[in-house]
Amino acid sequence: MFESAELGHTLAKTAFERQLPRLRKGLIDAQFDLLQDAPASVVILIHGMDGAGKGDTINTLNSWMDARHILTIGIDGPTDEEQLHAHMWRFWRLLPPKGKGALFAGSWYGETLSPRKKGKARLERTLERILRFERMLAQEGVLVLKFWLHLSKAQQRARFKALERSKKTRWRVTKLDWKHHARYDAFHAQAEHVLRATDAPHAPWVVVDGNDARYRNFTVAKTILQAVTARLKQNTNSKTAEVLPPVAIAPTRDTALLDHLVLAQHLPRGEYDQELERYQGKLNQLSREAKFRNISVVAVMEGVDAAGKGGAIRRITAALDARIYRVVPTAAPTDEERAHPYLWRFWRHAPQCGQVVIFDRSWYGRVLVERVEGFASNAEWLRAYGEINDFEEELAEGGAIIAKYWLQIGHGEQLERFSAREKTGYKKYKITPDDWRNRAKWDDYQRAVCDMIDHTSTQLAPWVLVEAENKYYARIKILKDLCERIEGKL
Amino acid sequence: MFESAELGHTLAKTAFERQLPRLRKGLIDAQFDLLQDAPASVVILIHGMDGAGKGDTINTLNSWMDARHILTIGIDGPTDEEQLHAHMWRFWRLLPPKGKGALFAGSWYGETLSPRKKGKARLERTLERILRFERMLAQEGVLVLKFWLHLSKAQQRARFKALERSKKTRWRVTKLDWKHHARYDAFHAQAEHVLRATDAPHAPWVVVDGNDARYRNFTVAKTILQAVTARLKQNTNSKTAEVLPPVAIAPTRDTALLDHLVLAQHLPRGEYDQELERYQGKLNQLSREAKFRNISVVAVMEGVDAAGKGGAIRRITAALDARIYRVVPTAAPTDEERAHPYLWRFWRHAPQCGQVVIFDRSWYGRVLVERVEGFASNAEWLRAYGEINDFEEELAEGGAIIAKYWLQIGHGEQLERFSAREKTGYKKYKITPDDWRNRAKWDDYQRAVCDMIDHTSTQLAPWVLVEAENKYYARIKILKDLCERIEGKL
């Protein structure tokens, strides 16, 4: 969920200053249009890690927009009067009317974002209610946008240290901040749980890297502008719709997550042979342990065309007894599969305990090829993130290890591999017109991949990005990770 | 939630036999149309109290429909194979393909419907997941219908006794049944919680009185027919809709709940004066207690026009210090109110602790006048039930007593009162053309009232039906109930 936000995105000053005037004009125009047509009100929540710049973002948004039409609301402990009322009263009375907006620093999420040991039933009920509340808001014409400004543990530490170095900002870092920092992992896990449970197409969480102020503020503002613009358009087109379709928020995703990878790793043949023997042996031994019969493995192989999924799969299966594994290639659905809900065809192949199922491509097709090629509607692929997370959670609760690998090679490397395949007789069948078509949409696919990882990399089922230009390196990375995941669970 | 189902509905044999051929033909035709167009699959869950006739209903449905296209699925403890898979695997593999149906005796609700002391967090998470699962099904084109066959405690006891009297059926009543019967209240409360949490327009719970086999089976079958017919129509009209609107299920609601009332109760003037003094005194004393400052009262007065709401309200307020109560008349919303989500204008008047707020008409307008007059769309009033329940739950959790009174008079009595008002100079203003218009739609309103009570009478916020042809009786019943509710909470 937070992978992309922990990379340390930056926006150079020159680029920022070049793009800012247009963004600010867009924001003001959108505010004006919203006020004129008043089809909706806008509720923006700003949450995030300590030190991720929540206050700075709110101040900046206020300076970029017309503050008369967007109210900033700081949520602190309830006032005396608020305490005498039902919990939600204070939020209801702060809701903006149609045509206007509100910027919530803190919100009804309140305490849900703090890690806790007790009161888990209460937390779950609160999250349920929040879900229903936000759905109601959306159905009543409120555009709900929720931002999570993120910092990795190292970034947070660096940020606090930097603030402490200057006399002017030293006071901003409190003992409580450092106390929270020490419990960073618990906060991280709690945030992931809450964001997962309350992420919905009609009230999405947008996770933004909080490390660089220019990048953070620009991204938040641009996302707001995109969402409001989409909402304004929607209204003129579908005045009669009883149920509003969700706003498709495609934040200004860069592909930094993939661009960041050093694709050509080093691993010479000799070393590879040794490592391969080592990890295949290990995998075989793990799969024979008595405890292995109480768990199962769901391995998902996804990647750029020609990145070497097949080769990697064969290195896994070679280490396993044929009776305990299955490789499930994902092709076009059969008629029977088409007559069932989307995930049915993958549930069919869910492993029982003691088994390994390797999916050669998978349910992620919906948010990759089906999204990019338009086979799935916006509503369909947008809700697929949540459905996929639910699916994987069910499998994990049933004892499965969910191991997901994305094999990445560069645009140039792909061309070389395509050409090589076309020249080699027995590999020719591996190149189809589809491959060339996908290649032509490289950038769209790469963006879809980054969105996918942002939405579906969870603690239970994390994505592993595999630098795959060196096949040896890729195979070993996958085998090693798989062994570690299984070992951790046994 | 179960009020209407506990009345002991019956369907006379003659009426049943007269209507059955048409119903059966309708079911078979609908099955055929469903198979031809295959726009959806149908998943029907049958749950209910022990002894409420789940098995009989399923057998009957099977005999009335073409069993080749509707599979009956009994859910017992998981098989060995199922136990080796993730929990939901067994339900996924049983989902019918488009064009077909499945009748689940037992389902993914499984253990959630048994009362429990431990594992509440787990229960809430399970309910959350069920909600998401059923939403996904609906979005993937599955029509989900959930029936709760109900019996009151006395009905259940009578049923078990009757079974035990005959040698042929004696074996059907087990020790476990009687053990459950002893814990009836806990099962009742658990069922209400689960049904409330998982009732949604796209996967509604339909509560059916299980006491009379003919009524029960006929009602379930008719509801299925209506829902499938509505779904088939929907599909031809809105092929392009990305989000399917919810199916408006209006089960064959009779108005038995209201018809059952003995409207003309007896209470002579002399007795009334005594009782009035007694309960007004009591109410005043309760409102002065120190603990009263920790709670609040939300009283809702709804009723047929001219049923005497105003008079009843005045008898309450006369007993209270003017500083602690407010009467909020509900008129057409202001511009400002219209610019906010529907419930905003009622949240504004939510009481703080120590206060009494009496709503003269209320948020129930949405499911009464707005529904009947078409001011609210189907989608709007259907989702209002859940929103209202959430609203009242929030208030109750904040310390409020929610006391809701429905004042009922007969059709003839209303006419007399209207005429009397028109003849009395100072009461003339009380009769408007709206009143006559509403009167013309008497039956529609009565049905809407019964639906409202079925969906929104909960343990936290029960409806009290007030027989109001004798005003004295009505006022005392309300005052007495209010005193008891407050006393119970202090």
Task: Determine the mean pLDDT of chain A.
Answer: 89
| Approximate shape of chain A | globular
What's the β-strand tally of chain A?
10
Proportion of helical residues of chain A? 40-55%
Give the strand order of the largest sheet of chain A, numbering strands 1, 2, ... along the chain: 2-3-1-4-5
User: Please, what is the oligomeric state?
Assistant: homodimer
Largest interface in this structure: A-B, 67 and 66 residues
Q: Encode the helix/strand succession of chain A as letters.
A: HEHEHHEHEHHHEHHHEHEHHEHHEHHHEH
Tally of helical segments of chain A: 20
Largest beta-sheet characterization of chain A: 5 strands, parallel
**Terminal Cα span of chain A:** 25 Å
Radius of gyration of chain A: 24 Å
Contiguous low-pLDDT stretches of chain A (5 residues minimum) are: 237-242
Question: In percent terms, what proportion of residues of chain A is strand?
Answer: 5-15%
User: Could you say which structural class the secondary elements and strand pairing of chain A correspond to?
Assistant: alpha/beta
